[in-house]
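Researcher: Good morning. I'm working through a list of sequences from a screen, and I'd like to move beyond sequence-only analysis. For each chain I'm collecting a predicted structure so we can compare shapes side by side. This is the next one on the list. No need for commentary yet; just the structure.
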Amino acid sequence: MVPDAKFASYYGRNIVKPAPWGHEIPTYLFLGGLAAGSALVAAGGEMTGRRELQRNGRLVALGALGGSTIALVSDLGKPSRFYNMMRTVKLTSPMSVGSWILAGFGAFTGVAAFSEVMKEVLPNEGRDLPMAWFWPYGDRLASIGAGFFSAPLAAYTAVLLSDTATPTWHAAYRELPFVFVGSALAAAGGAAMATTGTAETAPARRMAIGGALLESAAMALLERQIGVPGETLHEGRAGRLLTAAKALTAGGAALTLVAGRWRPAAALAGAALLAGSAATRFGVFEAGIESAKDPRYTVIPQKQRLAARRAQAALDAVSDATGLPTAAALAREAHHDPHGSTMKGQA
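Model: Good morning. Structure tokens for this chain:
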């Protein structure tokens, strides 16, 4: 009897080289998302007069941004490599674009946090200083600037992962940005609930619940659409992390909805949402690394795409020979002519 075929590569080497990244990169993914979402929280607090929410959101954003930058520089090995990334602009490189997004976000977030610190340090919150009338306008400009860069910062790391040849990350390129954006919103809402009195956290609670719903829906769609590389999302360390992430995110959102106006429950829900967001980033990272180690996650999708192209070519050949349109051609015609005028003309 012929033994079952085993997937392997030449000389026992991986077909796709696993990314040489340590725990610094998923830490960077989580803290970057938290910083982006917290800047949105702070901007909302500034524009609606929620002073405590504004202050805490800005400080959390700055702290998370600092932590994510340290993690990134630690992965690069030395600070000069981060500086070298800023010397060029390459629009086709997610890494280059992301570096400039991080820089722009950091500039506005730094100004906003500095403003908050000065309000605490200066007598009379700095109202006696010359040109103090300009301060509120500077505050508003810093909020708008940080908010402008928030969404790209929350999503670009997913684009960065999807742009690699790592099977699980690459196959999830449609859904992963939505997972990361939802995760960032849930984490930022949770951080605001954990640090701010409930009298000012109504927008943060709505953000946390909305982010949790977006993350859960996008993750469910990802798991259904991704195909064979999605097996790594359910196995080993990645599977345990993502299972924990789902439980923490759902539990945090439910507790927010039921008892979010009670401070102890709000703090507990916020901690659960933060932990769920971190587990999501680490789980997706681990799943990608494992998919690169096993050749079958590279070979099977390639064979499936090749079989699909051959089947389509065969259908096109039959269509050319018989003059009858294929189902795909009919679908394309219906898409271009939603009122069906082409079909009526043929009839």
